[in-house]
Amino acid sequence: MAIDLATRLQRDNSLTTAELDGEIVMLSLETSRYYGLNPIGSRIWELLAQPTTVAELCATLENEYAVSPAQCEREALALAQKLLDEKLARIVDSV
Amino acid sequence: MFRTFPPPSFVPGPDLHSLAALLGGAVQISEFKPSDLCGMVASACQHGVAPMLYRQLQRAGIDLAAPEWQELRAARELALRRYLRFKGAFQKIHAALDAAGIENVWLKGFALAHSVYPNPALRPMRDLDVLVPYERRQDALAQILPLGYVLESSALTDAVAQMYHHYQLRGPAALELHYRLFFTHSQTLSPERFAWFWTQTTWQQIDARKFVCFKPEALLLHLSAHAILQHGEFEFILQRYLDVHLLIQKYPQLDWSAVYARALEFRWTYAVARTLEFTRDYFGTALPDGLIAELDAHRPADENTTRARWIQPDSTRFEATRTLMQAMTRREALSWVWGSLFPTPEYMRWRYPIRANWQLPFWYVWRYGSFFADALKTALKSISH
């Protein structure tokens, strides 16, 4: 499913997670698969605890990291898509 | 007690003392040669402290992405993955026991990981240990088995199982479901003394879930008896003493007089003194002045220190069993002998790698043969001594 900046996502809060050295690692007990996120991915994961649009993610990340809007949108969309593909997050609704 | 640590004779190198001094922060990384640091990795992995070594090196700015650190990276990654698995298993078991109204106290690694380590993923674990009341042990099993666990020790005879202190389960994670703290209650901890531990609990929190574990004083006593009375000091694992070091550092207000009093009451003065000695000698842990000497000086006359040393590096199984049986009641000893000589086929299949029923008689022969060989070895040892 294609997503855009208006897509509102929320992470799967049932995953088992741990944080070590600023990076979040997750385990899906259903699939026994492990996932690792780098520090920016980990920050996105934190933000997705609540339903958040990709645009809102980018607004926060642009404030916190030295990243251009275009790069932020591109990478946030890519990560969001990956999270959806792996069923680590779900679309809540679209505005 | 050392006035300074490490002692003046200390020479930085790749040995276990150096590894401990490094982990305890007593020696700066700059005092070590790079080859010494690399030389510590195998020991760190073997002794369950690799993630903590990784952390120390990382904080010192060492480039751990370099190829020579591959083993250390892998050990840290493995510990992290195992932690996630144990955490997931814990969440389900804890929820099931709580829902059934079964008291549960989380022991050893999992409790330590969340109470004294800087990050729980830094404490490698091999299994989960949870304690439930003796009278609720079957109820607890009934809650846990549907979560995908299989009872590994189900094949033990009832008489032998009565003397065990836990059920061993495998499933989403290795699990020891304790109903006592130690093997054969009459040997190490009487039921009356065990009851004290149930009054020494506190809370820890993982995410939004609170769980019960022992207070620091009870935890220290349990760790000491576990290290010295259960495993024996000759099975030296640095992680056991790092646990104690971190526990003492985390709780500077630890009630040492309570630890001392209970060590005397439980007849654990030797175990506590040895644990503290090892911890101090390896990590430079600050202890109250004279505590170890007091424990040694006031050791009750009826404390069985022979038992504390029963796991000797050169002891035979016959000697170890004889020492163990001396601490049993007559009934327990008879049950033990009967269970050992005439184990059920189910036990044999659990104990030995038996792949087909026709192999079963051969493994009985093998078992009796190994008993005979052990007895012969003991006899020869006695003669030579």
Number of strands of chain B: 7
Strand % of chain B is: 5-15%
Cα-atom radius of gyration of chain B? 22 Å
Order of helices and strands of chain A: EEEEHEHHE
Number of helices of chain B: 20
Oligomer: heterodimer
Main sheet overview of chain A = 3 strands, antiparallel
Shape of chain B: globular
Give the rounded overall mean pLDDT of chain A. Answer: 90
Give me the count of strands of chain A. Answer: 6
Please report the two chains with the greatest interface, counting residues with C-beta closer than 8 angstroms to the partner's C-beta.
Answer: A-B, 11 and 14 residues
Query: What order do the strands of the largest sheet of chain B run in, or round the barrel if closed?
Result: 3-4-5-2-1-7-6
Mean pLDDT of chain B: 87
Can you give a write-up of this model?
The complex is a heterodimer of chains A (95) and B (385). Chain A has 3 helices and 6 strands; from the N terminus they run ββββαβααβ. A 3-stranded antiparallel sheet of chain A has the order 5-1-6. The longest helix of chain A has 17 residues. Chain A is globular. The model of chain A has no long low-confidence stretch (mean pLDDT 90). Chain B has 385 residues and is α/β, with parallel strands linked by helices. Chain B contains 20 helices and 7 strands. Chain B is globular and about 60 Å long. Chain B starts with 15 loop residues before the first helix and ends with a helix. The mean pLDDT of chain B is 87. Classes of the chains: A alpha+beta (95), B alpha/beta (385). Chains A and B meet through β2 and β3 of A and α5 of B.
Structure summary:
The complex is a heterodimer of chains A (95) and B (385). With 95 residues, chain A is α+β, with helices and mostly antiparallel strands.
